[in-house]
Specification:
alpha/beta; Rossmann fold; binds adenosine-5'-triphosphate; binds magnesium ion
């Protein structure tokens, strides 16, 4: 597709550590159309945050380095773009809600100033215009008595409110792309639902694209139209949301779905019990010849340990990195 807003092609990001080279992201490709919401899912440590930080040019170098690939945003490759241009794109065209609220909120600055600043930097608003607009945004993200809270410091807010301030900060410049890295993980279920519906509303209003990073497939089902599943730094499956839930192909995706709590019944701990995928993610310093999921896969056979599968087309819009595509007789379930 040539009409994507964001097009990541064969991106590899490595970290040089005393334990060896960590292949955190290892040849991933995906794209995102204007207005689309793409869910990026996978277990802890599979490279979701590293992918998003790469888009914004925020990989600490060293120890990190972009080993290969292209990150095309509109018509430009963000890799290798000079700091000045990157800074301009960051905040104005691409905004991010970070996994750790305190990474993006400055503890010693009042929140009003923090929400207003991008408007002064990117949109040339005067200080009073920017503060006016900041108050409007704090109100829109449902911070009670927003105008009075402009002078509050982050520590004076609850976790859910801090998350809202981050959303306001990300949205003020009306970005074309919002990257949200686990925007609701730290929040309780009620607040989580409020934040998600807030994001859906703002997204529709602004017509922006959303890259939603989470390990919660329930959140994906609610928000995204397409899903990319990552495992150990690679894309292992990509599909429309409906296909991922109805006909997941990769055994890893199937495992993730089985580990998803089916019902969240209040006060019933049994309904929360998870069916976890046995085993652990391989060390990313290891060079694995075959499929990276082989050690945990219920369907593993000889070829899986010998040769890395490519991303095979399963059906229209669905691809999976699994040899079962070539050996359908081995699919037992
Ligand atoms: N600065 C760093 N130095 C060394 N290794 C790093 C660094 N940053 C990330 N990594 C490694 O890269 C891998 C991918 O990490 P990443 O943070 O992208 O995972 P994630 O999918 O976001 O996980 P989570 O769901 O826990 O947020 C991990 O093995 C991590 O240890
Ligand atoms: Mg992360």
């Amino acid at each position: 597709m040539n009409h994507s807003l964001l097009d990541i092609e064969n991106l590899s990001v490595y970290f040089d550590t005393p334990e060896g080279v960590v292949r955190a992201v290892d040849g991933i490709s995906f794209d995102l159309a204007p207005g689309e919401t793409l869910g990026l899912v996978g277990e802890s440590g599979c490279g979701k945050s590293v992918t998003s930080l790469s888009i914004l040019g925020l990989i600490p170098t060293p120890p990190g380095r972009i080993k290969s690939g292209r990150i095309k945003f509109e018509d430009r490759d963000l890799i290798g773009l000079d700091t000045e241009n990157l800074r301009r794109i960051r905040g104005r065209d691409i905004a991010m809600i970070f996994q750790e609220p305190m990474t993006s909120l400055n503890p010693v600055l009042p929140i009003g100033r923090q929400v207003a600043e991008p408007l002064m930097v990117h949109k040339d608003l005067t200080k009073s215009e920017a503060f006016q607009e900041a108050a409007t945004w704090l109100d829109r993200v449902k911070i009670p008595a927003a105008r009075k809270r402009l002078s509050d410091y982050p520590h004076q807010l609850s976790g859910g409110m801090r998350q809202r301030v981050m959303i306001a900060m990300a949205m003020v410049c009306r970005p074309k792309l919002l990257i949200a890295d686990e925007p609701t993980t730290a929040l309780d279920v009620t607040i989580q639902a409020q934040i998600l519906s807030l994001m859906i509303g703002l997204k529709q209003e602004l017509g922006m694209s959303l890259l939603l990073i989470t390990h919660d497939l329930g959140v994906v089902a609610q928000m995204a139209s397409r899903v990319v599943v990552m495992y150990a730094g690679q894309v292992v499956e990509e599909a429309a949301v409906t296909d991922i839930f109805d006909q997941p192909f990769h055994p890893y995706t199937q495992g993730l779905l089985k580990s998803m709590p089916r019902l969240r019944v209040r006060g019933d701990s049994r309904s929360q019990r998870l069916n976890e995928i046995p085993g652990t993610v391989p060390l990313l310093t290891e060079v694995i010849r075959g499929c990276k999921f082989a050690d945990r896969c219920p369907h593993v056979f000889k070829r899986c340990r010998q040769q890395q599968p490519e991303l095979f087309v399963i059906r229209n819009g669905q691809r999976a990195r699994c040899w079962l595509k070539s050996y359908p007789e081995r699919r037992t379930t």
